[in-house]
Amino acid sequence: VEKIKLDPHRSHIEGERRKATILFMDVSGFTAISENLDCEEVVETINDFFTRMHTILEKYGGEIDKFMGDAMLVLWGTPVAYEDDDERACYSAIEMMQEIKNFNESRPAEIRKKFPISMTIGINSGLVFAGNVGSDKRMEYTVMGDNVNLAARLESMANPGEIVISGETASNLSEKILLKSLGKVPIKGKKDPVD
Fold first, then answer.
1. Pairing assessment for the beta strands 118-134 and 163-165 based on DSSP bridges
2. Vertex 66, ends 124 and 8: CA angle to 5°?
3. 13-32 tens-digit pLDDT
């Protein structure tokens, strides 16, 4: 906002390298819901779900970069940074996993039993490009880079109900968060296994 105020006639804001913590979240079981419920019910369900998750993310200073169908990309460290961005992301993820239980309990019993919803989360921290990306006609502020891709890969590794974080994120956490090491894991697109 400050950059725009200085020169309101510029068509874009140049990007910058920033240390960020990236959270990818994907809903498991959403395809079955989409195939078996009316589209209005599907939209109502996903909007209720995202509203609950957004409340948690706001509490911990997470910025939703984008919704991608039944998935979400969330950022800490850009555009606003805190000293404990890694912990904020992890506490958000833990609380989101707790809230999905409440969300499922709020759904009608017959639908809940037929179409349970869970989610997978991946978190990584590191340098990213943060700035406007797009065309001359439409641009969006977002993040790009290898560390964003790794967060997405970690999410895809997770089983429903699991949070998988990188060693980089783990190294910045206090001992309050209980972790279980998966060791060095091969990641698609990465030359070396990742902790």
1. parallel
2. 110
3. 567 899 999 999 999 877 77
